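Render FAD/FMN-containing dehydrogenase in 3D.
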Amino acid sequence: MSGLSDALLQALREAVGEAGLITDAERMQSYLSDWRGAYRGQAAAVLRPASTEEVAAVVRLCAQAGVALVPQGGNTGLCGGSIPDDSGAQIVLSLTRMKRIRAVDVANATITVEAGMILQQLQEAAAEVGRLFPLSLGAEGSCTVGGNLATNAGGTAVLRYGNMRDLTLGLEVVLPDGRVWDGLRGLRKDNTGYDLKHLFIGSEGTLGIITAAVLKLFPAVRSLTTAWVALPSPQAAVELIGQMRGLCGDRLTGFELMSRQSVEFVLRHVAGVSDPFAETHPWYVLIELSDTQPNAPLNELLEQGLGAALEQGVALDAVVAASDAQVRALWALREGISEAQNHEGPSLKHDISVPVSRIPDFIERTDAALQQAFPGVRIVTYGHVGDGNLHYNISKPAGAEDGAFKAQAEAIMRVIYDQTLRYAGSISAEHGLGQSKRLAAQHYKAPLELELMTRVKQALDPAGLMNPGKLL
């Protein structure tokens, strides 16, 4: 049984059609748990509207009935933001049927798409008109535009193109009372007051439901080169990125830092990868240069920059990919880290950011604090150095019991977040707060920030029916 009244259930069925309503317990299961199995809830029903009008009708009906909605896209998040609670009274609102391209304006360099479009399909649609949509992340084959917007997704290209907030010009949003705000304007200049779209980007569905967006397109990449570089320390990474930025400017589109522990996990558990160097090194970066011109002199720039770094001792060794296959092989070392760590038992994932200049001190002090408090934990540090975002993940000591390690999760988090606050950082750089970091945010965000966020929530969603229990 759904737990909804017969009248409401019938009205919802009429709003979305038989294809858009799921009440069967078995069919609902994939919507009630995240992809890692870390979060699980219950729901009265799953609704899959096929249009903005259907979304608006559902929201109006649920607002009148006092039923909470949990918006969901590809369900690829890491913080449980799209999973309902255990009450069985909430409705999951899946946007995955809304995946149309509404418009492509090549001259304006924009594309208008619905929230359920898969990110990879958006990238392919841009490529078909000779353009680039640059957001790129590990889940791009299954995550949706709506989820990317709801969490202000980042990924590997933020260094050059910015995160989802920077890539968005306009939104269409169904408000908590069922009205539709049409902000689908492809304008780069619109100085007419509050920029409302920024309220909804990063709000994790707590203020309304994003149904479509106008997104920026960029010239297609026609030249690309990639290098794998060994470094003595994170400080060397900060020095190297400064040198490469000065030399290459916006051609520097990727700069990914990885600890040796991260790479060892990949080499141990991911098939088909190999160490580019005969010797081991404490740290590595993957550097990518790209250009819109074919046959751009990227290899020459890269070799010039790396040559200087090797002479100065900033870099210890380097290899430049000589083929597309080698490029894919180098990226596999970076992109395989999260999967590989899962094979080492439970892992505690922390997605933090600090100013780029403070990354070395943060890593040194936090590593030391953790090893002193929790001897033997294995620290898996990797991330996007150019924007200060580190995935600072902790695996259990070799041979330790899973239960004992999990019992330390809260204390380990405190050490990491205390250090993050000390370095004027954020406890969530790109994953959002969801339900996993909601309580931590109450402790680490300034009281005035929390007050202002709460006031916004109350102004737009006074009944608290939009994704309750998330973010705030």
